[in-house]
Specification:
With 139 residues, the chain is of the alpha+beta class. It contains 4 helices and 5 strands; from the N terminus they run E-H-E-H-E-H-H-E-E. Helix content is 33%, strand content 30%. The site of nickel (II) ion has 4 residues, from strand 2.
């Protein structure tokens, strides 16, 4: 059976701050740029979850996009949308609130629940701004 990749897009808006608490605001600005602003700021993130599977001849699809959407929404989007990534999100606790860490953490949150519905997670892609995006393939 042919193997296909299905990508589901979800969106969330979250606040964050990139900073090292041991450094001054000036030093943080040097390292992390505008994302270090002490009084927080937000991004309208786009999350692309790509899963892989063999097309089922009877169904015409590999995995049910509704299942993917429900899992991504319940496990990840609900926890992030309109929240502060540094303070409110259990799976980001103790981590730098970077898009890179977000991608890895989202992968870890989704891999098992997706496997339960027969979807093999292939890629987590997060678009933070028009110019910056991150991809993670589980390596
Ligand atoms: Ni930022």
């Amino acid at each position: 059976m042919p193997v296909v990749y299905l990508t589901r897009r979800e969106r969330f808006s979250s606040a964050h701050r990139l900073f090292n608490p041991d450094l001054s605001d000036e030093q943080n600005l040097q390292i992390f740029g505008q994302c270090s602003h002490p009084n927080w700021h937000g991004h309208n993130y786009e999350l692309f979850v790509t899963v892989k599977g063999e097309v089922n001849a009877d169904l015409g699809y590999a995995v049910n996009a509704k299942d993917i959407s429900r899992i991504v929404h319940d496990m990840v989007v609900l926890k992030l949308d309109h929240k502060n990534i540094n303070m409110d999100v259990d799976f980001m606790r103790g981590k730098m609130a970077s898009t890179e860490n977000l991608a890895v953490s989202i992968w870890n949150e989704l891999q098992k629940p997706l496997a339960v519905v027969g979807a093999l997670l292939h890629c987590i892609r997060i678009v933070e701004t028009e110019n910056n995006s991150v991809e993670y393939y589980g390596e």
